[in-house]
Amino acid sequence: MELTIYVAYPAGNTTILVETPVPRHEYAGVAAKLLALPRVHGEQVGFLTEPQNGGAVRLEMMGGEFCGNALRCAALWWICTNGKSGRLTVPVEISGCADVLPVDYDPVSGDLTAQMPLPEKIEYLSARGETLAAVCFDGIVHLIAHKPDDWMSEEEAKELLRGAAKRFDQAAAGLLLCDAAFTTLHPAVYVAATDTLTCENSCASGSAAVAAVAAINKPDGVWPLEIAQPGGKLRTEATVTGGSVTKLRVGGIAAMTDAVSAVI
Fold first, then answer.
1. Global confidence as pTM
2. Backbone CA torsion sign across 54, 5, 188, 125
């Protein structure tokens, strides 16, 4: 099978975008082969499809999960392939989210800032004697722990997240290890459909989850937070209104290759 792909780099979270149409039932198998490509070092795969709800572009992730960095990459793909220039806002559809999400593009800095869905709920659970916040979006649940990146092995993390994805009936689950001030983050994401765990260089939906938890007890207003991750920094803004988080945005620089052919 020969595919036309683009490789995007949002804060190091290498994302493979597949332009060639692929049947949905083949997503997991195709994604596994693309992630194994030498020299690409992809962390996730999204399939570009026709919009269904009025967006400019739609992206289906390999396991039907939601991904904030891939959301930003889909906007960048649309901008580049349609020859757009200047400041603009791209409405993007993505798996794991029923809403069309706007992504703002700044051509000078290369920054893409996406409006993120709000958490459906925030619960708390115990793991290895620690209390973790479980931030549930439609499409992914993130577990937040104030622990160093060697808190548990990858196999232990995979087992924990496999259980979390099942417990919260989500396509994916993330483990977010951050400092007490929420300014550093080491993310790992498990995708149930492919039974894979990836220690990611950055995670936008995870950053949104952290921003939401950090803002829970803040007064009304807009609360910015810059979160350093292995692949770079992502900026977040949590808007608090009436004691609740009413808006989340995540932004950062992203780049993308020209179209390349991949034979798998």
1. 0.91
2. positive
Give one DSSP letter per residue of 87-137, joined into a string: SEEEEEEETT-SS-EEEEEETTTTEEEEEEPPPSEEEEEEETTEEEEEEEE
d(CA 262, CA 33): 10
User: What is the structure's pLDDT at 85?
Assistant: 87
Check whether 39 has a pLDDT greater than 90: no
Do the Cβ atoms of 245 and 220 come closer than 8 Å?
no
- pLDDT tens-digit map of 109-146: 999 999 999 999 999 999 988 999 999 999 999 999 99
What is the structure's pLDDT at 7? 98
Residue 140 identity = I
Distance CA 76, CA 6 (A): 11
Domains of the chain: residue spans and CATH: 2-107+253-263 (3.10.310.10), 121-251 (3.10.310.10)
Do residues 133 and 159 touch, judged by C-beta distance below 8 A?
no
Q: In whole angstroms, what is the distance from residue 138 CA to residue 157 CA?
A: 21
Residues 135, 214: Cα–Cα separation, whole Å = 12
